[in-house]
């Protein structure tokens, strides 16, 4: 917990790495995972860095890896026999294989997989085409042979048929002449195919305008839905048959049909040939299905090989890319023929780093070892990174603080306190025993399935939020149960845990205390539920609790600021910031908390002239308006007027104490430091023969030191800081009243849902069980959606705001520090491990 309270002490190091050992050294450092490298090539573009070519090469290999990953979902891990997985020895061999050999394997595997996918797509397209053609021929037979369907055809005079009564004839008179004879006699030709059902009206209009009516179109919907290869969806298609005369019109019709996305097929004109074609197509379709099955089996076998190799390939390629990307941060020294790296490491890991460097030198076989230099006095521009070692339980709470801002180096971290205060304030707003139990059960389910959710969290943002905040949800559920127990509410129904201290007066609705000394053991007495004063009582209790909790948390923030001042030895801030701030808070807001508690603990019924009817708001207003003129019936304790006058004076005096002394003391110190530096520079100049450039340099340094302190800027900053704290103390205290408002809203919504929905339906005697069941379902759905989801999210956001604004602003600076991000293979190894499971 000590390392979580303040960030880990850091040490700056410089590494001189020989060229022949740099790859192995960075690899071992990645396995160690405790070194945060600085970018020594920040002035260079990405293309000017020394290892850009290697990184780009690995980017191309990674594209192939991503192509493989896109097809791995077809093979489940549980479907692969255990003996097919790689052994530990084989995995080590792949990790040590030459990168060119792996690149060659990737090239062959990619070509093979693309060829398999291409063949599979072609076979599927061919299969769909055969199936569609069979359905089309069946519809064409219906067009041409159905005697009920007739067609008015205007034949040439020399080939005109006998006229019938209705001037109608069948499409083809098969008993009189063959199709070939008909085509020869009439000069009619036809085009047939399929088109999406919704495009038929458009096709009909365009064909009519294009051919100027010189065509005849017949359509019929295909009952069987056909699967489209491009969209992989089943669609409804329509078969069409178009009669026309002339090759030019036929070309136009074909072009129009093709542009509309139609599939055209050549179908025999003779009925017997069409029947034989259907049989041949069905045989081809069956053969094609067998080929597709064999092709799929071959693809599955290839994907299994790819699946068992993918995790180790993923680890190897991403490690190599991380290594070369890190090497791009190093600066190459031409004179020493080595790479220079600068980094931050935790103080207690120096020995581990030395051991890691020695191991890498031995592994690489380099003649010159890597040199590690500890930089005792790093430049002020190099800000040490902030590092808090956190467990899985603490990680979510630390993420909440990091979202506000990364803590400055060695600054007090709010996380240890947030672990308790955040879910507690949430519980104050969400307090209900029943809802808290449901939230806790949900959190336990998430914790039990955290391994599966962790894998899904890599691709799903919502699941990632749920996974990262699983312990936060668990703690919020527990504190909701606790606060619900204190409020004595379970789904807005009071529970009689410990009996009651009230009893009815003479069997009436008026309640009296059983004894004057009777006190309910824990929480709220259940007898308050259903009374006319229930809302007033809950309103007063929760409002005052909100004020007490808010001021307590703000005072805690001020105490933590004292710890920061002591650690950084800012004694001036202690005298003219911390002490005045504490006096200001305690003189008014602390006094208000005292009055609240005092009014609770005193038995006002024993006092003459006072029955507990003193209003605290009126007392606090009169404290400033009538400091010495409060009436006797408003006095709560002896010497109240004198004490209040002293508190007012303290409150007023703290404001100039925060505003005036600090800027003037800083100006005095700046003048004194400037004089001392001036004397030192004069002595240096008189004792040495400096050229003109050195004199100009000294003058420039003097000018820089003069600009170090600007009294006007410091004064304005202090003025803003003072106004912000004084006004913020009032607004922040009012802001904590959201605890009261949300708690009351949650309680009243629960009560409305229970009484107006469930109890109302339960009282419907005519419907009976059905009404109870329907009422329960409606009540459960609304409780989950409104109370467990929306109210939970609302309480979470309000608790977040109270910590970010009201609590953190009292001590947490977080003004530009950087997070400790060591070079590590941990995440790469974890992701590779996830692909194995």
The radius of gyration is: 42 Å
Estimate the strand proportion.
5-15%
Distance between the termini: 34 Å
Rounded mean pLDDT is 84
Helical run tally: 26
Q: What structural category characterises the helix and strand content?
A: alpha+beta
Largest sheet: 5 strands, antiparallel
Shape: extended
Count of extended strands: 15
- Weakly predicted, low-confidence segments: 147-185, 688-706
Helix content: 55-70%
Describe, in plain words, how this protein is organized in 3D:
With 837 residues, the chain is an alpha+beta fold. 61% of the residues lie in helices and 8% in strands. It has 26 helices and 15 strands. The strands form five sheets. Strands 1, 2, 11, 12 and 13 form a five-stranded antiparallel beta sheet that branches. A four-stranded antiparallel beta sheet has the order 6-9-5-10, sandwiched between helices. A hairpin with a 4-residue loop joins strand 11 (331-333) and strand 12 (338-346). Helix 12 (415-430) packs across helix 16. The two termini are 34 Å apart. Residues 147-185 and 688-706 have low confidence and may be disordered.
List the helices and strands and how they pair.
Blueprint: H1 2-5, E1 10-18, H2 22-32, E2 36-37, H3 52-69, H4 88-96, H5 99-145, E3 150-151, E4 169-170, H6 179-186, E5 189-196, H7 200-211, E6 215-221, E7 226-227, E8 234-235, E9 237-244, H8 247-259, E10 263-265, H9 271-327, E11 331-333, E12 338-346, H10 350-364, E13 371-375, H11 392-404, H12 415-430, H13 433-448, H14 450-456, H15 461-468, H16 470-487, E14 502-504, E15 511-513, H17 534-567, H18 571-601, H19 616-625, H20 640-659, H21 661-686, H22 692-706, H23 711-735, H24 738-762, H25 769-807, H26 826-836
Helix pairs in contact: 2-9, 2-10, 3-5, 3-9, 5-9, 7-8, 9-26, 11-12, 12-16, 12-24, 12-25, 13-16, 14-15, 17-18, 17-24, 18-20, 18-23, 21-22, 21-23, 24-25
